[in-house]
Amino acid sequence: MVYIASWQEFQEAAENLYTKSPNKARYCVKWRSSEGKLVLKITDDTTCIKFKTYSSIFLNRFEALNLSLMQKMQNKRPTPIVHALGVPDTTKDADQTRSSSPFVAQPAGPAAGGVKKKKPKKKK
What we know:
This protein has 124 residues and is of the alpha+beta class. Helices cover 31% and strands 18% of the residues. It has helices spanning 7-20, 59-73, 91-99; strands at residues 2-3, 26-32, 37-43, 48-53. A four-stranded mixed sheet has the order 1-4-3-2, covered by helices on one side. Strand 2 (26-32) and strand 3 form a beta hairpin. The longest helix has 15 residues, at 59-73. The protein is elongated.
């Protein structure tokens, strides 16, 4: 197990490790709130790389890495921009028809999502 000190190196190594063996790769996230420590680990049973940080600055980078790995795990690519291809965008029309509806969605049940408790009877 190797702790990589640089985030950029860890991100590249993690993505390369997953693309090399997507069926065997495992990704683990550990958060210890008492220590404020975040440990990321990715392994394919032969290679294991880890990244450890105590800084909250890495949370945005961690989220970007998660998004990238999840897209690869789902075999999806980022959606292309439709306007560059000259295809009309139909999502705007659907949003307008929904917003022009006279009915407003009301949440069902109490706002807190639970059942109201009965008040106890007053003793005389």
